[in-house]
Each structure stands twice: as C-alpha cells, then as structure tokens.
Write a sequence for this structure.
C-alpha cells in the first residue's frame, strides 16, 4: 500500500460532543477546508437519534449538500438498519457501523447486549453491501472499557473477524477512551493481523494520556497504513466517560511526512482547516505540531511573496 490514508473524523467524532451547536453551513465549510488540504477520506456525520446526539441532528440535510471530489471518500456513521435507511435516502455511498467490544459499553450506549449488538452490526453491514455501499466497521473500546477495564485482545479479533465476514471493507480498531500504550497496540495487532489482511485494518486513537502519536508509530511499524484522525484534535465520545480528543490530523501528518510516509496533505492548508475548526467551536484547537506548522506556513508564504516581487 502506497502512503498513509487518513480519514478525518473531525466533522463527526470531533463535533459530536461539542455543547454549542455548530451550524450545517459551518460543517460544510469545515469539510470543504479538509478537502482543500488533501484529505482522501472524511467521516462527515452520523445518522443517530437527534435526542442522543443533538449535534448530528442535521445529518439528513448536511450529507446531500456535500461535494465529494473525484477519488475521495465521504462516509457517515449508522448505528443500525434504521440509520442506514436514513443514510440511503440522503444519498450516502459509504457507511460505518460501531460495535463496542464489551457487554457494559453496549448496554450503556445502545441498550443492547454484546451478542445482540453484533447481530445488528452484521445485519446492517450485509444490507449496506446489498445496496452497493462501501463499508467500515469500528470495534470500539478495543483496548479498554470505562466500565469493564482492559479488553481481551482475542475478543477484539473475534469481533473484527465477524464483521469482516459480514463484508466490512475496513476494520477500524478504536481506542475510544485513549487508554492504550504501544505495547497494547502491538498485542492487539499481533492477534488480529494473522486473520485480517493489514490493508483492511485501520486504527482510531484518542489522546487522553498523550500516547496517541506513539500508538500510531507502533501501528505504522507493523504495516498499518490506515488511520482515523481529527482536525485540531477535536473529539471525545459522549457515551464513554473520560474520553478526550482524538489524535490530531496535523500531528499524524507531520509524523508521517518526517518518517517517509506520504499522506498527500498540504501543511499550510491543514493550518487553515484548524483555524476553521477553531472558529466553529469558539475556542483555539490544534495538535502539538501546530506552532511549528503555523510558523512554517508563514515562512513559506513570505518566501512566495518575495519571489513574486
């Protein structure tokens, strides 16, 4: 696989826990800024209950209004077959399902047990595939659960394999509460990669303990080339106590670039996308690399202006 494919989940995972409403037009502006920066894939929204996640209440209006550049992918999260029906009506061509890896997290999140939740996810994947949709499947709390503690790696393998068998094109292993270390990432991937091709595996890290970038580096070293990230590090699961922001897209891009992994992202336009995100949420956001990225962008702009004189 050439290069690293980053799916920016900022418009969905990044905004879903924001208390202040973000307008549909604002979300469109953010997504356009992400396309401009070169993101190959964006998770734009989720077709969940507006009562459960008010910030995503405009999914039916937002998705049909979005332009998708050629060769890019735009997806939406669907919690079940009812959500899939809404996504289909909105013209969605790629969907993601989420299965929590523990009994308690499923009960707290969707009021189903693990077995029932797995049945619903696999049924939703099969129906999505029957409509010709591309599919992604998350295994949430794959490293640790806020209610049950450490998640056994063999269980993650079993659940991921079940969703692969149901037709999931990409399997995203999610550190929902940001509890993983590189050792944990190695353990889970050692369990998973013998049964699922690495080309179909993605990682989704939160930065609660400051280890998201280290975890991404571990996964890169094991051959993974698909990652979720969120512009500005926005995010946090509203159903997982203690979940902090996601791995920042700009930080992951810098790591990849400086270690020889192409992303196709424009650093200066990533800075602009971070500024758009900050304006939308009403406070400054940005990963650890932002001060350097901003200085670099200003320096490049000054050099270009000097050349034009």
């Amino acid at each position: 696989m050439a290069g690293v494919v980053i799916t920016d989940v900022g418009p969905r995972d990044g905004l879903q826990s924001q208390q202040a409403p973000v307008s549909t037009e604002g979300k469109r502006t953010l997504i356009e800024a992400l396309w401009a920066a070169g993101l190959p894939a964006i998770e734009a929204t989720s077709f969940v209950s507006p009562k459960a996640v008010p910030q995503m209440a405009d999914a039916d209006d937002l998705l049909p209004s979005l332009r998708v550049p050629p060769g890019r992918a735009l997806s939406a999260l669907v919690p079940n077959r009812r959500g899939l029906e809404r996504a289909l009506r909105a013209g969605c061509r790629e969907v993601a399902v989420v299965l929590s890896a523990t009994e308690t997290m499923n009960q707290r999140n969707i009021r189903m047990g693990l077995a029932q939740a797995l049945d619903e996810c696999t049924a939703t994947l099969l129906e999505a595939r029957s409509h010709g949709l591309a599919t992604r499947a998350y295994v949430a709390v794959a490293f640790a659960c806020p209610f049950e503690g450490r998640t056994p790696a063999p269980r993650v393998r079993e659940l991921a394999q079940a969703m692969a068998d149901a037709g999931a094109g990409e399997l995203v292993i999610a550190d929902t509460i940001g509890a993983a270390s590189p050792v944990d990432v190695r353990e889970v991937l050692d369990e998973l990669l013998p049964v699922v091709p690495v080309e179909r595996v993605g990682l989704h890290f939160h930065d609660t303990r400051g280890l998201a970038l280290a975890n991404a580096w571990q996964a890169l070293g094991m051959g993974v080339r698909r990652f979720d990230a969120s512009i500005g590090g926005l995010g946090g699961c509203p159903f997982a106590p203690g979940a902090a922001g996601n791995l920042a897209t700009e930080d992951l891009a810098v790591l990849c670039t400086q270690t020889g992994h192409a992303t196709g992202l424009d650093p200066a336009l990533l800075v602009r996308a971070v500024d758009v995100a900050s304006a939308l949420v009403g406070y400054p956001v940005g990963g650890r690399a932002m001060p350097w990225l901003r200085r670099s962008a200003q320096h490049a702009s000054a050099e270009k202006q000097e050349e034009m004189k």
The chain has twelve helices and ten strands. The chain has one domain: 5-308.
